[in-house]
Amino acid sequence: HLSKYKPTAAWYRGEPEEAAPEADNDSPQELNNFEPPGDTVESSSSLKRILRIACPSLLAFICFCILLIPVIIVLAHIRNLQPDDQIVVRYNDRKEVINGPQTTVVNPFTKREWRKAIKVAPLDYVVVKDEFTSRWRTEGGPSLMFLGAHEVVNSTRPKILLRKGQYLRFVDRETGKERVATGPQSVVPGPWEVWPDGIQQALVVRENSAVVVIDRATGVKKLVDQPGMFVPDMNEEVVREQQVIRIFPFESVVVQDGRGALSVHSGNDTSGLGKDFFLPAYSEVVQMEWSAFSEPKVGEPQIISKEIVTVIDSRPRRSFFQYDTRTVDGVNLRIDGAVFWQIADVAKFIPVTKDPPGDVWYHARSSLIEIVSALTFSAFMDDLNAVGDAALAGSRSDDFYFERGLEINSIEILRFECVDENTARNLRLIIEGSVQRLNDLERQEGINDAEEAQLKSQSELEKQREALVKVRSNNSLLKATAEGSAEGLSQATADALILSKISGSVPSQQDGLDILTLHYRLRGQNERTRSLGKTKGTLVFSRDSLGLNFGEL
């Protein structure tokens, strides 16, 4: 019965209320006529009083419980995060991350994921991908890296080490931008950066070297000649490396700039040491194609070729030539020789000609042919030097060389030969006879020189012999003098002794000397007589020597 009772608003106000019909399966009319028994009404009143007293306390308890539950929930979801802790909070439409160190309250009605921060080593870097936006990024160590809400680690890679003097050019495949990293350092590339050229060595610019670079953004070139290590910027590209151009005092170089203007760099300065310069960025050395004439060999044609010349030498030059010409009497000749010339003014010949050797060769040919064609063959052979001098004078008679800044010094004919076979044979015989005469003359001169040398040597020998005889004679004289002096001294001593002994027997000293003289004369005659007696020859006496006079007989 109580279970079917529902309190009304009057009941809550403490007012008497009408009896409610019993809810059963009876008809509505019966329910309206239902009256509860007496004991039931008393029970109902007691219950009302109990509920009226307990209801406020119950409501307060219920409210307290309602307030306590959130506090418990909040306290239960307080989290203390360490420095390397991270919480990923998943909502229905998004994700969030909470990074340590901190103390935070986590939403209890979301899903949560705990993960640690990534420790990146000092020599490594990490490639991270955001799965929500598909964006990539890199982060280098050393660091404690917290990932984003939607980020995952793709890979861990070593940093790129650049030493001193090295550089690396990065190209971002996403934006197309470039950047240049120079050493020494450890480089962390971007997620989309590549380095197609690899690690490159910085260019060393010395006092004798330079670098020409171009800015790809503006197209402007510049020359870098400051000594040191050169690393191009992100938009710069090395066009070329060049060495300093050294020119000696006798050399010159023609340079053409970007507008086509020509300028001459000459080494003929006041110091006498030459000149050094770097080629500007938009300039280039003019290359000229000059004719080259080989030295003709006997019986072979001269070879004419081309050579590339960049440095102009102003010293005297020699160009060989081989010209075919005809004398006035119809003898066809092939003349070999050389033209000596030099460049006097480089600035003059540059706008006029690009082949000075060719101009000299062809102009000298016209002058020499003009001279030879006016001579007979015999006149040509008489004096070849005169023919060369006449050709030189003819070449100098006009302004051809002056207009080109050239000077011709001499034209020399070295040899010639006849083109016609019969004439060549006769000329060969004449030449052979002349050569034979020259050889004979040289041979005779050699014989004469040998005889002259022999006579000179014999004369010198005789002079030496004469000197020897004189020396021997002097020696003999000296020896004889010495021996005679010694013998004379001994004889004088003996004579003095004899004179002293006979001085008392003779009247005077003169008589003693006469006696001594007679003694030596007789001894000499005895010696001669003894010598004649020892010989086997015949002794012949003249009449005068014996003192005979046959006329008296």
What's the layout of helices and strands?
Blueprint: H1 9-13, H2 28-32, H3 38-76, E1 78-81, E2 85-90, E3 95-99, E4 102-105, E5 111-116, E6 118-120, E7 124-130, E8 136-140, E9 143-145, E10 151-158, E11 160-162, E12 166-172, E13 178-182, E14 185-187, E15 193-194, E16 200-201, E17 203-205, E18 209-215, E19 221-224, E20 228-230, E21 236-243, E22 245-247, E23 251-256, E24 262-266, E25 275-277, E26 284-285, E27 288-293, E28 304-309, E29 311-313, E30 317-326, E31 332-343, H4 346-352, H5 356-372, H6 377-382, H7 384-396, H8 400-403, E32 406-418, H9 421-502, H10 509-534, H11 543-546
Antiparallel strand pairs: 1-4, 2-3, 2-5, 6-9, 7-8, 7-10, 11-14, 12-13, 12-15, 12-16, 17-20, 18-19, 18-21, 22-25, 23-24, 23-26, 23-29, 27-28, 30-31, 31-32
Helix pairs in contact: 5-7, 9-10
